[in-house]
Amino acid sequence: MHRAIDSKLAGLGIAALALASGAAQAEVTATFTAASNYDFRGITQTALDPALQASIDWVGENGVYASLWGSNIDFGTYEITDPYVPPPGEPVPDPVANVDLNIEIDAILGYAGSFTEDFGYDVGITYYKYLGNDDEGVNNFDYAEVFGGLNGKLLSADVSAKVWYAWDYSNSGESAWYGELNGDIPLPWWDLGVTAHAGYSDGNYWTSDDTGLDSYLDWSLGLIRSFGRFDFAVKYIDGSDLKEADCSLASVECGGEPAFSSQSTVYFSVATTFPWGKEE
After folding, report:
1. Phi-psi category of 252—alpha, beta or left, where left has phi over 0 and alpha has psi -120 to 50?
2. Cα–Cα distance, 214 to 243 (Å, whole number)
3. What is the C-alpha separation between 151 and 157, in angstroms, rounded?
């Protein structure tokens, strides 16, 4: 239920690494993105609808960085049909509760360091907060996730590997981890680049009998290009290895509400970062 923040964190980590390796001052930027879909590890967070996203990012001189990121979301309408037993002292909610969560806010704190000029590391923590209409409070998905990874240059490509771990994934009481590989490869034509990603989700959350899910692989492949101050991307994204969500977790049968769908899709995005500097 969350966004794939790997590319964003990679950018922040590289920026922190660059500042830490030279005599640079702290930097604050803001990035705005319009996308055809909000994809998180092969699963849509907007029911395959468009997303508007924004962040404010701070990178310190010594490799520390922080960010606040936000996006619209669409988790569908939840009907609580199983008996819910609240903690002592709390009221028992109605057996059916409709929940409409529509905003996600992520708080990120990290540190990037280097082994060599072209090889570094990145560690940190992300807290995911979900906002909307949930009067009964029975659908609290808020949780924290730690991450650690390596990044560097391989020939002309920017490559990274990262592992994420949540001890209480989606406030479920179950742990989960995610491993990923990412690469951006420049092409010799028209200033294009290839962007590639592969990730694997596993852990108790995905393999527990309570969820009815299973560990799965997601991947994407696409093209990236900058035009002036705007960065464009088009990708093919596939999380359909998660068979239980290939159509929809919200409606079970294909053709229903596509909340949390992991079906393959084509993704478009355009982003720009402020302050705008002088174009080269």
Report:
1. left
2. 8
3. 11
Residue 237: give the domain boundaries. 6-274
Domain count for the chain, please give it: 1
Assess if residue 68 is contained within a domain: yes
Q: Rounded to two decimals, what is the model's pTM?
A: 0.83
Q: Is residue 206 part of a domain?
A: yes
Give the CATH number of the domain where residue 20 resides: 2.40.230.20
Tokens coding 113:
């360091």
In-domain check, residue 280: no
Mind listing the pLDDT tens digit of every residue in the chain (280 residues)?
A: 444 445 555 555 555 555 555 445 678 999 999 999 999 999 999 999 999 999 999 999 889 999 999 999 998 765 555 555 556 666 655 554 556 788 999 999 999 999 998 999 999 999 999 988 755 555 678 999 999 999 999 989 999 999 999 999 998 899 999 999 999 999 999 899 999 999 999 999 999 877 778 899 999 999 999 999 999 999 999 999 988 777 644 444 444 557 888 989 999 999 999 998 755 4
